[in-house]
């Protein structure tokens, strides 16, 4: 779908590493170029037309983000440098004060380092307890397992919307309802889910959400932190400086701006915010449901075809989503990825930043194919063709 | 060394490596983990040193064809060498990988990695065992 919108695709490369970052459509690149060429100015500062225009588009992006994830107000949208910064801000700016020794956080071993690691640090610092909700046999997370893991000490459920290795779509609505009923805070790492499925923070009772622009057609260096207004009021900034303060004096009196501005210290990535706006508008035009079903179809096709390849082992065949993780029998995943690179096929090998997951999977490292809507059946056929000749792998890579 | 021979040497040492099966500190070995930051190879390498000479070497872990085979070949060459000779060998090997002047005579089977610079992203794989051995040497110096 919509391949003509992506200049990168003219390279002829087959890009199957969308879980790492996505390609960018021309509209996104143009919108950023236009800012630099036509109204390059800082925001919230100058008394001249182009600064006003930049500020306006910057604030419009908040509104677009709000609509995209179904938030109640645009004050609940904070711009960050990416999902990683959003998660660190939430965990060290909010949970560090909110949680007390002995409180339990429900999480899984399939989570990305950017969610798990800050909580591991907090576990050491203040003595909270991370409880790993068991994954099912196919490494996915089921609602019942979350339900069973809740105790009187549970305060938070922190999971990704779609896990980045196995790629399972988590039952966010049910878990959100559970959190609401039990008074738990629901933190969703949306880095993989927001680009690939419809998100609605109000309907799903999500209290905090983090995601990155670059995985959803936007530029690098921009991400979003969503939080319910009431919680954001209690969150503390981790960075102080220009643009986030109301006033201060040398005697130490500091008054900070209101939410969300107090969390956006310094000159923000203005061009990137503008690019994010174009990216989201573009995604909304295509429709998240269409994106999701296209990816699911590609996966179904690939998995079905791979059944004919006895040398390929797929680890998440029946998982509903847009990721396929596999290995070529007796071949180290990195060698497999290097082999595919010789055919112009970009994939990723490794643990994919979910290093605790290796405690659950039968293998440490896998090759990951992660689709986006611009991938095609023809590209999958080329992958299959390359894999069909995998007995020549070492002749190709050595 | 022709391309076909190099490939066979690498493959043979990958699929049936020498010195596989880690022996640890309890057996008097010095151990180093080589967790490559830019890729996913993860090997443990250990050396047993007595009277200034490497008398045995072992390794284990999960890694690609290049780093596993290079470990096999390098460890095989190291056993029997004095610390000084070992250092020299490792340095010479590193120079070869980094395209600097090196002594071809001393490389033996390690010449299989002579052209690895043609695939720059694989240089770190080839250097993995060399880095670990150098680290162990440094450890030795401190003791
Ligand atoms: C599930 C998940 N969370 C968080 C992140 C971190 O995103 P970023 O590197 O853009 O901050 C990623 C990126 O790989 C991810 O897949």
In short:
Chain A is of the alpha/beta class.
Widest sheet: strand ordering of chain A? 2-8-7-6-5-3-4
Q: Strand percentage of chain B, roughly?
A: 15-25%
Major interchain interface with per-chain residue totals: A-B, 14 and 15 residues
Total E-strand runs of chain A = 15
Q: Helix proportion of residues of chain A, in percent?
A: 25-40%
Task: Give me the strand/helix succession of chain B.
Answer: HEEEHHH
Mean pLDDT of chain B: 92
Distance between the termini of chain B: 40 Å
CATH topology-level fold name of chain B: Sufe protein. Chain: A
Number of strands of chain B: 3
Assembly state: heterodimer
CATH architecture of chain B: Alpha-Beta Complex
SSE order of chain A, as H and E?
Answer: EHHEHEHEHEHEEEHEEHHEEHEEEHH
Strands in their spatial order, largest beta sheet of chain B: 1-2-3
- Amino- and carboxy-terminal Cα gap of chain A: 36 Å
What ligand molecules are bound, each kind once?
pyridoxal-5'-phosphate
The share of residues in extended strands of chain A comes to: 15-25%
Shape of chain A: globular
- Low-confidence runs of chain A: none
Largest sheet of chain A, in brief, is: 7 strands, mixed
Radius of gyration of chain B: 14 Å
């Amino acid at each position: 779908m919509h391949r003509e919108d992506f200049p990168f695709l003219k390279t002829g490369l087959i890009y199957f590493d969308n879980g790492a970052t996505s390609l960018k459509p021309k509209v996104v690149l143009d919108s950023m170029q236009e800012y630099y060429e036509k109204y390059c100015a800082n925001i919230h500062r100058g008394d001249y037309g182009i600064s006003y225009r930049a500020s306006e588009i910057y604030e419009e992006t908040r509104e677009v983000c709000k609509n995209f994830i179904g938030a109640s107000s645009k004050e609940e949208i904070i711009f960050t440098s990416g999902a990683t910064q959003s998660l660190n801000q939430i965990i060290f700016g909010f949970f560090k004060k909110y949680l007390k020794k002995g409180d339990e956080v429900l999480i899984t071993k399939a989570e990305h380092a950017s969610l798990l690691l800050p909580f591991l640090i907090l576990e050491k610092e203040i003595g909270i307890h991370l409880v790993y909700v068991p994954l099912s046999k196919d490494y996915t997370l089921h609602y019942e397992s979350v339900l069973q893991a809740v105790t009187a000490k549970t305060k938070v459920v922190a999971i990704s919307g779609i896990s980045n290795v196995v790629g399972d779509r988590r039952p966010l609505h049910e878990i959100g309802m559970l959190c609401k009923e039990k008074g738990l805070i629901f933190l969703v790492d949306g880095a993989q889910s927001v680009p690939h499925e419809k998100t609605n923070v109000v309907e799903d009772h999500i209290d905090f959400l983090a995601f990155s622009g670059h995985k959803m057609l936007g530029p690098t260096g921009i991400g979003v932190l969503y939080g319910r207004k009431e919680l954001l009021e209690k969150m503390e900034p981790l960075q102080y400086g220009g643009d986030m303060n109301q006033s201060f004096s040398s005697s130490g009196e500091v008054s900070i701006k209101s939410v969300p501005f107090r969390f956006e210290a310094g000159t923000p990535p203005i061009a990137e915010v503008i690019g994010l706006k174009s990216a989201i508008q573009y995604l909304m035009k295509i429709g998240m449901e269409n994106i999701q079903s296209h990816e699911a179809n590609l996966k179904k096709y690939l998995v079905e075809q791979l059944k004919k390849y006895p040398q390929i082992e797929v680890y998440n065949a029946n998982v509903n989503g847009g990721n396929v993780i596999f290995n070529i029998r007796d071949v180290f995943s990195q060698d497999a990825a290097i082999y595919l690179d010789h055919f112009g096929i970009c994939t990723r090998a490794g643990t994919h930043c979910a290093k605790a997951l290796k405690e659950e999977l039968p293998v440490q490292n896998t090759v990951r194919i992660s689709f986006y809507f611009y991938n095609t059946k023809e590209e999958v056929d080329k992958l299959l063709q390359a894999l069909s000749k995998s007995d020549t792998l070492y002749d190709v890579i050595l | 060394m022709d391309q076909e021979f190099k490939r066979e040497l690498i493959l043979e040492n990958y699929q049936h490596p020498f010195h596989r099966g880690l022996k640890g500190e309890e057996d008097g070995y010095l151990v180093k983990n080589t967790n490559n930051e830019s890729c996913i190879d993860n090997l443990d390498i250990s050396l047993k040193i007595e009277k200034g000479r490497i008398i045995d070497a072992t390794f284990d872990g999960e890694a690609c064809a290049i780093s596993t085979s290079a470990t096999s070949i390098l460890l095989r060459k190291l056993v029997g060498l004095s610390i000084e000779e070992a250092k020299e060998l490792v340095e010479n090997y590193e120079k070869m990988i980094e395209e600097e002047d090196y002594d071809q005579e001393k490389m033996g089977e390690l010449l299989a990695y002579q052209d690895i610079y043609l695939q720059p992203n694989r240089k770190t794989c080839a250097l993995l065992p060399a880095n670990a051995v150098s680290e162990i040497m440094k450890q030795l110096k401190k003791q």
